[in-house]
């Protein structure tokens, strides 16, 4: 007998019919002899509906009260799913975050889970019941209702799996797994059977939005095997696990990309110690997150060129700040470009395999793509290129690294 | 400084605009220097919407899960009202039934309140906050969410007022008080300034549906002064209080009526001890509630005639049962009539004033109304008449007892 935590998102429980379909899936698993805990989100559209009510009253709703309001979304789902399970002869019991004691800090709207009291759940599982838990929500030490922020149900499920020492945490969603890249860009993209936590983190943060980053981090930290699979199709999905369990000898897991970046460059900055801080300090003071940062020697030996990327929404503000900084630093000029895209090759295999970077640059050069920026880490190489080359670049790399063939 | 518990029903909080109007009313009261606890229902229509979702899954939804589902209705309202209060500069904090520890028994869907932990509320009130509590719901000793059944928010408010030893419990609704009779039947009906708990119980149970009976009983038992008033109009409403506080010398408080009754008669039952039980036992075994019961001597001295009334919905079933009973008892015949109505004169004053009954019968006779049944209690006289005489009868009695003039 295994102990499985399953998580179904808003689309998977978006109607009575879908909730009934989920009930069947859950019952199937239980009928195999496994103990099942189900974590659910609010029915799709419900959180937005509630948020709309709140915003009609306050443009910045009081965080504590917003959590009281939003927590009702999942509470509706747990009740309906428990009814649907009982209706097909599967004993079930629902719990809100407060009832099952998902204890969090007091950061309303973005709380973090501290611990979970598993006694009640184990008692129900031992009695043969499926336990249905409201995701996304918890309770702080004063008994206030908290929420983990959007998408937090993934984290609830992983935290639940960790607390229960579950054999696997299964995240049911509307895709059937993690792909080598976005199939809308490269139709030959292949579903991965396995991927490591580190690779998944890079893939997720770079735009392949399948799982919440925090959930993956949490799963990695607590070594909870995580599986992404489809609510609507049969299949084994993708297992996210520790590196040592990955048997494939793949160098590259996949190709991620980010379309919403913009780059800013300041040229001819007098090269003194602390110049990077002087440039980026005012930007981060304005709460603008900086992604890639590159500093090069300038046209003459005593000056430097400095480039960084930000989210495209922050471009105008960042540019305004940078112009002021450039003036005070007596820099030569300031450039900006919003029509860029970042493509990243991700894979733990590149640690032990030389030549990945040069093969990447070669593949891009062969199709005539000029690289604007390069940044590397242990398991990732990112390049910034002109936006118009996005599809071409992704396909060239997918081809060059043979990603459409199973490793 | 007074401590006031206010309760707003579903219609009063049926939209964002109405919630904002309630917030203004609450703030007004607090600005007068009073401490205010607000108990709210689900927004009108919400409970039915949730019930619809449940019934789409199970025709008889699991009671525990139904409570988890329905309790979200009030939770939405408390969050929105607290936001609306904060938006106009009035500090407020919301509590679910579980958070404020409204402890009930475990009878899901129709739980009864056992006690309320008032420590948390007093702490908030002392800190100058308005406390907004979800009505209709509580928590049992095992931490399960319970609901008090439809309309239970009135009871929540009264229980809250009793636990806090509030100076007054104000029930805001869509009528501006308790009237001498239904103004749709008698336009001259007058709003009462005061009424006793006993009178209110009789008026409520007989069809003047302003307040939940259980709430009135609870208020009477715990001597909580109760006031009914309108959410939409200004005014003092009607105060429901103990008899000794009623200064008016009114003989009659008002006229109630019930349009949905039906009467059944069995004639010529051999008059043996225990015959009433033999007739009514099978009826109550079928879960049919019996209202009036009258037994008379029959046409001959050794038989009896027996009449009782039931809700019109139960008439067919009751008649079927009665026919079987009549046969087994060798009764002469069975009659039934669905076109009847019950009119009741209610007033604690009639205890000490003789002649009320005869004046009532006289008034009805003067307009040619034949009385089919009579039943009396200490503070009430009820008659059953033909349905077609309802309006005529109510108006004749309203006139005869001078109810349109202030006492």
Explain how this protein is built.
Two copies of one chain form a homodimer. Chain A is 34% helix and 27% strand. Chain A is α/β, with parallel strands linked by helices. An eight-stranded mixed beta sheet of chain A has the order 3-6-2-1-9-11-12-10, sandwiched between helices.
What can be said about this structure in brief?
The first copy, chain A, is 34% helix and 27% strand.
Sum up the structure in keywords.
alpha/beta, 27% strand, Carbamate kinase, 407 residues, 8-stranded mixed sheet, homodimer
Taken from the alpha-carbon principal axes, the silhouette of chain A is globular
Assembly annotation? homodimer
Mean pLDDT of chain A: 90
Helix content of chain A: 25-40%
Tally of separate helices of chain A? 11
CATH uppermost class of the domain at 3-173 in chain A? Alpha Beta
Instruction: Please identify the structural class of chain A as seen in this structure.
Output: alpha/beta
The H-level CATH homologous superfamily of the domain at 3-173 in chain A, spelled out, is: Acetylglutamate kinase-like
Strand order in the sheet with the most strands of chain A? 3-6-2-1-9-11-12-10
DSSP strand content of chain A:
25-35%
């Amino acid at each position: 007998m295994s102990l499985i935590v399953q998580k179904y998102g808003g689309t998977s429980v978006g109607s009575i019919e879908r909730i009934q379909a989920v009930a069947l899936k859950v019952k199937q698993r239980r009928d195999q002899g496994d103990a099942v805990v189900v974590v659910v989100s609010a029915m799709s559209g419900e959180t937005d509906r509630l948020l709309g009510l709140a915003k009609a009253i306050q443009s910045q709703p009081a965080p504590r009260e917003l959590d009281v309001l939003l927590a009702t979304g999942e509470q509706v789902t747990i009740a309906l799913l428990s009814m649907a399970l009982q209706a097909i002869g599967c004993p079930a019991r629902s719990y809100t975050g407060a009832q099952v004691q998902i204890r969090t800090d007091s950061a309303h709207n973005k709380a973090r889970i501290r611990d979970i009291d598993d006694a009640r759940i184990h008692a129900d599982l031992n009695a043969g019941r499926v336990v249905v838990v409201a995701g996304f929500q918890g309770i702080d030490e004063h008994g206030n209702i908290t929420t983990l922020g959007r998408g937090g149900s993934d984290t609830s499920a992983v935290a639940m799996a960790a607390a229960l020492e579950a054999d696997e945490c299964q995240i049911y969603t509307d895709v059937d797994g993690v792909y080598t890249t976005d199939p809308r860009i490269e139709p030959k993209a292949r579903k991965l059977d396995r991927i490591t936590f580190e690779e998944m983190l890079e893939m997720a943060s770079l735009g392949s939005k399948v799982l919440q980053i925090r959930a993956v981090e949490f799963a990695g930290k607590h070594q909870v095997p995580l599986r992404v699979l489809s609510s609507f199709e049969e299949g084994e999905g993708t297992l996210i696990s520790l590196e040592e369990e990955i048997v494939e000898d793949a160098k590259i897991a996949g190709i991620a990309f980010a379309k919403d970046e913009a780059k800013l460059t300041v040229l001819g900055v007098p090269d003194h110690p602390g110049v990077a801080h002087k440039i980026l300090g005012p930007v981060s003071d304005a709460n603008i997150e900086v992604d890639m940062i590159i500093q090069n020697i300038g046209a003459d030996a005593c000056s430097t060129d400095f480039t960084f990327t930000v989210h495209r929404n922050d471009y105008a503000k960042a540019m305004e700040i940078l112009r002021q900084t450039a003036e005070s630093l007596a820099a030569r000029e300031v450039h900006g470009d919003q029509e860029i895209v970042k493509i990243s090759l991700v894979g733990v295999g590149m640690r032990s395999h030389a030549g990945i970077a040069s093969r990447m640059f070669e593949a891009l050069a062969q199709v005539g793509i000029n690289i604007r920026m390069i940044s590397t880490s242990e398991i990732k190489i990112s390049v910034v290129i002109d936006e118009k080359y996005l599809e071409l670049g992704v396909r060239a790399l997918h081809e060059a690294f043979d990603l459409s063939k199973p490793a």
